[in-house]
Design goal:
The protein is of the alpha+beta class. It has three domains: about 140 residues, Beta-Lactamase (2-Layer Sandwich), CATH 3.30.450; about 90 residues, Helix Hairpins, CATH 1.10.287; about 150 residues, Histidine kinase-like ATPase, C-terminal domain (Heat Shock Protein 90), CATH 3.30.565. It contains seven helices and 15 strands. The strands form four sheets. Strands 3, 4, 5, 6, 7 and 8 form a six-stranded antiparallel beta sheet that branches. Strands 10-12-13-15-14 form a five-stranded mixed beta sheet, with helices on one face. The protein has a two-stranded antiparallel ribbon with strand order 1-2. A hairpin with a 2-residue loop joins strand 1 and strand 2.
């Protein structure tokens, strides 16, 4: 069984609701219209009778009426009876027989005479011991005709209104869902073409559906960016791992052919060790980055002396700098305390200093400065190396990104992950990191970390 579309469901609900509302409205009209007609008829009878009484008086034991007394007015017949019930004024309307209908003071009576329904009102006037009755009579078949006309109008109008409600509801619903159909068509084009560069473009007023489309466009844009970064990350990681892997394989094959030459085998094993160490470092960094992406990395906060930690890192970096004829200089304010993850801050300092060494020339320098500024600790790692072009400075934080392949260092096993890791460490500690650089004059990386973590 084919399921109804949302448009059809909404149309059915809308039409059903309109039928229910119209039913209540017309039932109300039918019920209260009859009561209103009856009330109006009774009111007219009483007013006609009272007006007739005002024109009657007693004189010399007999009743008198004004010369302009009207026995018929606007469908109402006025009859005058003596105290014994004998008709003494006016004439019975055609088709009305008052035989057997007693007089009742200030009462409304309804009778059927000659297949016509009549309504009448009686009132007794007593003055100076004399009395006279006045009766107002009218046929209510005219009101019945009015009610029949109303009923006929209701019967004709209800189906028309239902059809109008149905078609109108379907048209409104179709118009409201048109942007969704456009979104569905665009999404299918994106899915079938596997092209995340396409976006949803809706026409018309800026309503909630347009807001949904904009949100969807934002999601596609983030997915496109994420996929592009993932593709680039995979390609770069594969490239970085392919080189040491190829070296290890080739060196191992060579060693197998030189088993009788101990010196050759030793040299090969040293080469394999270097490449394996490089691969291990790369894998560790990739693992750390994967954990950060999955929000699995835990930060162990502790209060420690960051000045002492910086001195230790600088001392370790001197050995690496000496190999490349790079001097390590320090300007560290003593006894600075910070609440942070000591292992991660050590990694931060090492990555920044290794970057300064890697992108420097022989006889250059890398300087680390550490000082406090109110509630923050500020660190600056500067060098007089090759520098970074201004247009490249925003992208150096991307994984595996290198500013220029012609100036990319081949030494020290640089993988292009150090600055990405440094930025992540700083941000995890609610800090900031910036870079200032000029081509041929060097670079200066500055990070600012709060002394105490925010709760």
């Amino acid at each position: 069984m084919k399921r109804l579309s949302i448009k059809m469901k909404v149309t059915i609900w809308y039409t059903g609701l309109m039928i229910l509302i119209m039913g209540f409205v017309f039932a109300f009209i039918w019920l209260f219209a009859g009561q209103a007609v009856t009330y109006q008829a009774e009111k007219q009878l009483k007013e006609s009778a009272i007006e007739g009484l005002e024109e009657i008086r007693f004189q010399d034991g007999h009743y008198k009426r004004d010369d302009d007394f009207e026995f018929y007015d606007d469908g109402v017949s006025i009859l005058i009876y003596d105290e014994n019930g004998n008709l003494i004024g006016g004439s019975l309307p055609s088709g009305f027989n008052d035989q057997g209908i007693g007089l009742a003071h200030d009462r409304i009576q309804t009778v059927v005479s000659n297949q016509t329904e009549w309504i009448m009102y009686d009132y007794q006037l007593i003055q100076d011991g004399q009395s006279v009755w006045i009766r107002s009579v009218m046929a209510i078949d005219s009101f019945a005709k009015t009610m029949n006309i109303i009923f006929l109008i209701v019967l004709i109008s209800i189906p028309i209104l239902i059809l109008l409600a149905g078609f109108g509801g379907y048209w409104i619903t179709k118009k409201a869902f048109r942007p969704i159909e456009e979104m569905n068509r665009a999404v299918n084009e994106i899915k079938d073409g596997k092209d995340l560069s396409k976006r949803l473009h809706l026409s018309g007023a800026k309503d909630e559906i347009h807001g949904l489309a904009e949100t969807f466009n934002g999601m596609i844009e983030r997915l496109e960016t994420s996929f592009e970064k993932e593709k680039q990350f995979t390609a770069d990681a594969s490239h970085e791992l392919r080189t040491p892997t190829s070296v290890i394989i080739s060196q191992a094959e060579y060693a197998l052919t030189e088993l009788n030459h101990q010196a050759e085998v030793k040299e090969v094993l040293q080469s394999i060790l270097r490449q394996s160490t490089k691969m291990s470092e790369l894998i560790n960094q990739l693992l750390q980055l994967a954990r950060t992406d999955q929000k699995n990395a835990s930060i162990q906060y502790e209060l420690f002396d960051i000045s002492e930690l910086t001195e230790i890192v600088a001392e370790e970096m001197r050995e690496l700098g000496d190999k490349s004829s790079i001097s390590i200089e320090t300007d560290i304010q003593p006894r600075l305390k910070i609440e942070a993850d000591q292992t991660l801050l050590m990694r931060l300092l090492m990555n920044l200093m290794m970057n300064g060494i890697a992108y420097n020339e022989a006889n250059g320098y890398v300087k680390i400065k550490l000082y406090e500024d109110r509630n923050d600790i500020i660190g600056e790692v500067s060098d007089n190396g090759i520098g970074i072009e201004e247009k490249e400075q925003e992208r150096i934080w991307e994984r595996f990104y290198r500013v220029d392949s012609a100036r990319t260092p081949k030494k020290n096993g640089n993988t292009g992950l150090g600055l990405s890791m440094a930025k992540w460490i700083v941000e995890q500690h609610q800090g900031t990191i910036t870079v200032k650089s000029q081509i041929g004059k060097g670079s200066m990386f500055q990070f600012r970390l709060p002394k105490r973590r925010s709760q």
